[in-house]
Amino acid sequence: MGRVLIIGCGGVASVAIQKCCQNSEVFEEILIASRTKSKCDVLKQKLDGGKTENQAAQWNANKSRTKIQTAQLDADKKEEVVKLIKQFEPDLVMNIALPYQDLTIMEACLECGVNYMDTANYEPEDIEEPKWRAAYEKRCKEQGFSAYFDYSYQWAYHKRFAEAGITALLGSGFDPGVTQAYCAYALKHKFDTIDTIDILDCNGGDHGYAFATNFNPEINLREVSAAGSYWENGHWVEVPAMSIKREYYFDQVGQKDMYLLHHEEIESLAKNIPDVKRIRFFMTFGQSYLDHMRCLENVGMLSTTPILYEGKEIVPIQFLKALLPDPASLGPRTKGKTNIGCIFTGKKDGKEKSYYLYNVCDHQECFREVGSQAISYTTGVPAMVGAMMLLTGKWNKAGVYTVEQFDPDPYMEALNRWGLPWQESDSPVLVD
Ligand code: NDP
Questions:
Q1: Closest ligand 1 atom, CA of 73?
Q2: Environment class of 24 (CB within 10 Å of its CB; exposed 0-12, middle 13-18, buried 19+)
Q3: Number of the ligand 1 atom closest to the C-alpha atom of 76
Q4: Most ligand 1 atoms within 8 A of CB, residue of 95, 98, 150, 169 to mutate
Q5: Rounded Cα gap, residues 188 and 198, in angstroms
Q6: Which of 204, 224, 307, 382 is most buried, judged by most C-beta within 10 A?
Q7: pTM score > 0.90 for this model?
Q8: Peptide bond before residue 176 is cis, with ω within 30 degrees of 0
Q9: In sequence order, which ranges of 75-151 are alpha helices (DSSP H)?
């Protein structure tokens, strides 16, 4: 049914690729293209059933009918992306590289008239660059919050995508992604009006390291060290990083500390969920993680501004990334579960109600299935599901859209089928 160019072959992409290959009726042919081609080739071998007899015995269960090709690509260069799209002629480009590549890949899709999707919204690699700094400061002033990742860069493409008759689906991971499908589902089936949404991202997993990040360290640390913000009564409220804490009790995980963060889906939900009064995002962090992060920040290791070291320019946060464990290597070590979902309050048939819609995912089960921990799994599965919605024509509006702007039902059904079944409960889980 579909030919897909998948860009990136890191932690999240390798899960999404394996899920596409499990779903070979929809994903007939894929081209995996990334900066380091050898990673694409190793995954292709695994999915082709292995090169040697030993590998074949170990990997045969994964053997897929999806035809796989690989290529080297620097997606920072639009011309390279255009060239590859013209050679392979895909129906869809799945961008699962880094947020820094979103705009070059969107430009290439526009030039070639091909649908686009990603798992995280654009952020400039170096916000201090004069080109970005002025626009960033203007936006902060207008919008009242200072996160350097937001939808404005990509929403600016809506008209061009609509006129070209192609779709860009933004942020089809778990959060953003599934959390927005949960919001659309709650609005369609459970509420007449939603007053508040609290998105809770709880990771009860333990990898045994004093400090490591569960997905790309640079993107992760930039996100959690930024000021927190939430949406209330039509405005952004900005607070210092990690200054609002809550304790929740989670089904199958237990009691956890959570901290309020700025998160991209708050911005699109504020636009697309009518009359919502407050939207917040909370994530779990252990004390050891917070202590390490504070210390690294204090000594300047989280900076994205290049410095000269022994005559060579290095970016501190990129150097730190090279020292930290590769998130892809956490799979075999991580035990425990994630519980990610949304608490809604609002009205149905004139009565006040609250409702929790969530997924529980087990790190070790994910590892057994695809060789990754649950954070990559809970992002990679919805990436495949979002791509499937576009390829099967279930979601087919021309323009740039986020997940909650489409019918949630086929997406929710596919989550159940492809490894992220959802659960519901009436009771809120706040402890303190
Ligand atoms: P990784 O660092 O593990 O993988 C990134 C991949 O992109 C690597 O294969 C890397 O190549 C490749 N890449 C980087 N730059 C380029 C480039 N210029 N050209 C081509 N390929 C490139 O990241 P993750 O898998 O952890 O994260 C992937 C994406 O998923 C990120 O955008 C992240 O923000 C997003 N994410 C979304 C979540 C959600 O819930 N929505 C949750 C978690 C992550 P190389 O191997 O050479 O480094």
A1: 20
A2: middle
A3: 18
A4: 98
A5: 18
A6: 382
A7: yes
A8: yes
A9: 78-88, 102-112, 130-143
14 CA distance to ligand 1 centroid (A)?
Answer: 10
What tokens appear for 346 in the block?
């609002």
If you measure from the C-alpha of residue 94 to the centroid of ligand 1, how many angstroms do you get, rounded to a whole number?
12
**113's torsion region: left (phi>0), alpha (psi -120 to 50) or beta?**
left
Coil, strand or helix at 389: helix
In single-letter form, the type of residue at position 293 comes to M
Q: What helix, strand, coil percent values describe the chain, rounded to 5?
A: 40, 25, 30
CB 403 within 8 A of CB 172: yes
Q: What is the pLDDT of residues 64-83, one digit of tens each?
A: 789 999 999 999 999 999 99
| Encoded tokens for 44 | 């292709």
At 81, list the tokens.
Answer: 């992306």
Residues with CB under 6 A from ligand 1: 7-13, 34-36, 39, 73-76, 96-99, 101, 119-120, 171, 173-177, 215-216, 219, 327-328, 379
Q: Does residue 240 have a cis peptide bond before it, meaning omega lies within 30 degrees of 0?
A: no
Q: Phi first, then psi: what are they for 220, rounded to 5°?
A: -65, -45
Using CA atoms, how far residue 371 sits from 51, 142, 263, 330, 382, in Å, is 18, 44, 28, 10, 17
| ∠ CA 345-350-355, rounded to 5° | 25
Enter the tokens of residue 20.
Answer: 């596409």
Q: What is the DSSP letter of 430?
A: B
List helix spans (H) across 392-426.
Answer: 408-417
Atom of ligand 1 minimally distant from the CA of 220 = 34
Question: In the chain, which residues have pLDDT < 70?
Answer: 50-63, 427-428, 432
